[in-house]
Amino acid sequence: MIPSSACARYLRMLAIATLTLSCGGDGTTSDPHDIGDTHSDKDGQTSDTDTTDSHAEDGTLPPPPCTVGLPCSDNDSCTINDTCTDTVCAGTPYTCDDDRPCTANECDGVGGCVFPVTSGHCLIFNVCRTHGDLNSANTCERCDIDLNKIGWSDRSDDAPCEDGNPCTFGDYCKKGTCKKGLKSTCDDQNDCTVDSCQATVGCINAPASGSCDDGNPCTPESVCTGGVCHSIAEDCDDDNPCTTDTCLPDLGCAHVAFQGACEDGDACTDEDTCVESTCVPGAPTFCSDDTECTDDHCDAVFGCYHTLVESACCSGAVHLCDDGNPCTNDSCNTTTFACNNTPHTDYCDDGNPCTVNDACNNAVCEAGFANDCNDGNPCTTDFCDESVGCQNPQFIGPCDDGIECTVDETCIDGQCVGDSSNCKCVPDFGTTVARANMLLLGEDGEPGNGLDVDQNPATCAPVGMCSNGIDNALSPLAPLANPALLDAMGSGDVNLLFELIDPKTNGQPFSLALYAADLVGSGCDPMVDECNFEIDDQALSESCEALILLDNATIQNGVLTAGGPAYNFPLNVPLFNNEPFLLQLHYGTVRADITLLGNKVVAMTNGIIAGAVPKEIFSTALEMIDENDLPLPKETVVQLIDLILKEDVDTKPPAGPDAVSTGFRFTAIPAKIVGVEE
After folding, report:
1. What is the torsional sign of CA 25, 30, 34, 36?
2. What is the distance of C-alpha 35 from the center of its chain?
3. Are strands 269-270 and 359-361 parallel, antiparallel or unpaired?
4. Tell me, what's the pLDDT at 13?
5. What CA–CA distances, in Å, run from 456 to 175, 187, 658?
6. What pLDDT, in 10s, does the model give residues 418-436?
7. How far apart (Å, rounded) are the C-alpha atoms in residues 524 and 674?
8. Euclidean distance between CA atoms 660 and 19, whole angstroms
9. Which residue in 678, 605, 618 sits closest to 647, CA to CA?
10. DSSP string spanning 409-433?
11. Are 545 and 552 in contact (CB under 8 A)?
């Protein structure tokens, strides 16, 4: 039988103090932490000295009393060379620290250290990794604590990866190796480039030469230059003065009739007028020179001309009976030379610039109406001086600027300036404005119903109803949403306005603002007429700037584009029974064919507003809508949305898809902004 004290000494020598060994002849086991709990009596028998489990505050056992000269243990695994001094056992402390954040630092009690990997981590090639971390050298391997905490584990088959070849996409993992996906065509949808791919540089879109087709009937002759399809615009002039001639990309030449004055090309008619696209001649040109000594004629090209007549009453073009009165018709008897000066009631000029529409009465030219000299400026005094005509001198004093929220207006340098501190803002709107008269959710993911939101031509949505990279995963809601959209747009309850700020048509950038607005007045049909609108003050910032401002808008070959991945903005649309949905649109993009006439919008057609919407917005919005305002029970709508809407756009790469792509089709007609709703 080996005495217990000798057993403890042997255990230390073997450096396996943490193992359980059988010491003594009674068949029981002893714990290394229990070493020193027994002592030997004179007869060689062992007896317990303390059966109380007394632990220190840190959870370790306090050192038991010891016998000087005999081996002992201080119950501290981070000490060595334990020695009994004055019945107290103490050892030399040592520390264990491998400077790795993912391992625990533990002593083995015999001068050595162990460093077990902590929960949720891997230690791979002496580098700490977190569960799920990918191997940067091979993205088909990852740290998986359930499989291997000290080495890389294979990711699941078909997980996405990048094989390093820019000429492939959709690469996938297979048994820990990244396999090539589909070969990239590098098609940039540009007929004026030759598309190819090189493994060292990726896609190459080299400029091509020759003819091209930009798909625009307004530019039938096109040729490739520098990789761009340059076109010669079609001449749409129909030689009709009663039409505005333009070319619409989706229709070709368009000739919009207008009402107003025109010129029929005949110099012998005045005040011609357009009626149903036809210039109707006005009254014959009055060519009389008020003398019988000439015959009055009119030529359709040259206008009025006069020829002398042979008369005894005339001396050249001077009539012998001319009394100098513009209100008489002067005639002469060629036999007796008697004069006849007959009064008439035609228009005349009394010589006073402060009267208009003067007329003859009883051979006297009588003044007509007073000349209205109002110049529309509240800071001028408007009057007429009979010697020089209208006068509009500036003045300094109180005025009215016509803005309801300003006070204490005063004329300064001919401008009416007021205190606008009570106004939220006094914006300066332009005239290049259009109002959407049709806004519908695209029915599928085909061209014309959306855009390539994620800018990946290899993906489209919804699956099975899309092509050409078009993303519109929200389209399954179109049958439910579009009736409400049509009603709201037609009634004027919902108005989306576009303001083109200093627009350019040569591809140079400008700003495009989008506003929610209210129809002003009645009797104007917002679906067909150019109506007046006030901007909703919620669409403006405190500094009076548009909250939705796309500062990268361009117009190239009649196509307006603006926005993109860097642009996020709210879009308020009624999806169910005119109840507004505030959609936070990520990757917001606007595209439309546009026709401008000067600084006026003629039309916007084939328009698309596209982006991606977080799916949870719909659940939040539905909670605020009365169930009676929904076409189906609310619970059914919620389940329907959760079932059919699939997140397909990653707005926070590389986290993965977190938003639902969407596309709204729209057209727009001219509109006017007349103020801000206070």
Report:
1. positive
2. 76
3. unpaired
4. 38
5. 27, 11, 16
6. 887 777 667 778 889 999 9
7. 14
8. 60
9. 618
10. EEEETTEEEEE-TTSS------S-E
11. no
